[in-house]
Known about the structure:
The chain is an all-beta fold. Helices cover 0% and strands 48% of the residues.
Amino acid sequence: xxxxxGTKSIGDIYHGSKRVVAVYHGSKxxxxxxxxxxxxxxxxxxxxxxxxxxxxCWSPERNLFxxxxxSGKLATSPDGINWTQRTSGFTSQIRxxCWSPERNLFxxxxxxxxxxxxxx
Length: 120
């Protein structure tokens, strides 16, 4: 697993699409792994902004990872490797995201009680 000299901690980690995707608190980096000895840093749209990544989730029904972060930033990926920036509708920090298979939608929560859903 990648090491950040003890200054960073895992912010969120999710398994899907035959790999694990991890994001770190206070980081713009996304890491993927197929086996425990070979973590790979991926390029994400967060790296070109001031936004940090806060959370990631996986939808097996949509075959899609979603990563969310500061300044309303949101990105999606079918494989955890290739990420596409999306418009979230949030203007402040998105704290968490999850997939609801029962409702067939993603749910994101942010600052000041902000809440959004998406079935895409």
